[in-house]
Amino acid sequence: MSKHIYLHPEPFVFENGRELTDLQISYETFGKPNADRSNVIWVCHALTANADVLDWWSGLFGTGELFDSNDYYIICANVIGSAYNSSNPLSVNPATGQPYYLSFPEFTVRDLVNAHQFLADYLDIKQIEILIGGSLGGQQALEWAVSHSIAINHLIVVGTNAVHSPWGIAFNESQRLAITTDRTFYANHPDGGAKGLKVARAMALLSYRNYTTYANTQKEDDNEKLDHYKASSYQNYQGEKLVKRYNAYSYYFLTKAMDSHNLGRGRRSIESALASIDCPTLVLSVNTDLLFPPQEQQFIAQHVPNAHYQEIESTYGHDGFLIETKKLTKIISNFLREQKEYLNELV
Fold first, then answer.
1. Which of 74, 156, 189, 303 holds its CA 20 to 30 A away from the CA of 277?
2. Could you give the CA distance from residue 204 to residue 173 in angstroms, rounded to a whole number?
3. Residue 209 counted as an annotated binding residue
4. Where are the beta strands (DSSP E) in the chain?
């Protein structure tokens, strides 16, 4: 594993016209590129993840796993706005000498992709063998494929959509309401909005899991209990856990970026954008996903010309894309093997 920082040498222009004069992208690499750089796997991470994909997607990535750094050159870059060393609201604004906080430029999923394209150019990567992402990462992967700014040989997206839904936007806005209700959010302090972020994370968990998940893991065995329920403790614990590793400003801006996702913006339509994807594509859903329900992935698969659709059975809801790594491994390995066999038949 190697950690790196890419400093963009020119002003970075956002989709809304604003600029950053000192864009910084934090990224990690695992393994080594082969002679013709044909073994690149690029991972697009989800909302609050870092670039250490071997940590948060262990079981799919790692030594002895399907995506082994002994075989692949694996790249995972933190998105703009992330709390993990890419340019974000806590970065210092060179014009003021103080952190940006709420003056940081609002950005879109398309901006995240454009920044990573600059990184790919810097790394002299002309093709990506496998581009993979789930949730917000899947939105990025789809946007990158539709942009046609780099050759992609295989595209894999999990628990994502072609346009963020009113349901998803409502969840995000509710979380932002919780954050902005915390008056410290406007205090221009690195810990600003921490209490609101805790509430936001607790709300988000309800969309990441589902009724069955909580029934299986948080059910009470004591019929006499009147307070201090497992489910209550769990919500508090998960909220505090995020506050310890993240900040409210990054969370606020990244949820807005997720809301911006629409493959049809500036293009003829969402359907035509999907139809332009010309690489073999695996679209995966989790059958109990409340936040990105399977019909959203089915829509993607229906409109991408060479798409293969699979549904994973899981009680974990949206988080199933991170937890059900054995099922993911089986489906993805079959997909890649079938693609290899098909190419061999053409030779």
1. 74
2. 11
3. no
4. 2-7, 12-13, 19-20, 24-30, 40-44, 73-77, 92-93, 98-99, 127-134, 151-158, 281-286, 307-312
> Which residue among 45, 164, 303, 318 is the active-site one?
318
DSSP H helical segments within 87-229, as ranges?
Answer: 109-122, 136-147, 166-181, 194-208, 211-217
Q: How many CA atoms lie within 13 A of 57 on its CB side?
A: 26
Mean pLDDT of the chain: 96
pLDDT band at 330 (very low <50, low <70, confident <90, very high): very high
* 201 assigned ligand-binding residue: yes
- Identify the structural domains of the chain with CATH numbers, from first to last: 2-163+262-346 (3.40.50.1820), 168-257 (1.10.1740.110)
Q: Which of 69, 91, 135, 285 is catalytic?
A: 135
Catalytic residue among 154, 250, 289, 303: 289
Q: What is the pTM of this model?
A: 0.96
Yes or no: say if 184 and 178 are a contact pair by the CB < 8 Å rule. no
Strands 19-20 and 24-30: unpaired
- pLDDT at residue number 347: 56
Task: Please list, in sequence order, all residues whose beta carbon lies within 8 angstroms of the beta carbon of residue 104, skipping any fewer than 6 positions away.
Answer: 81, 88, 89, 91, 249, 253
Residue 302, Cβ neighbours under 10 Å: how many? Answer: 12
- Can you tell me whether residue 78 is helix, strand or coil? coil
Dihedral sign computed on CA atoms, order 6, 23, 126, 55: positive
Tokens encoding 10: 């020119």
Q: In angstroms, rounded to a whole number, what is the distance separating the alpha carbons of residues 29 and 42?
A: 9
| 289 in catalytic set | yes
Cβ–Cβ < 8 Å for 80, 115: yes
- Interhelix angle 248-259/166-181, rounded to 10 degrees, is 160
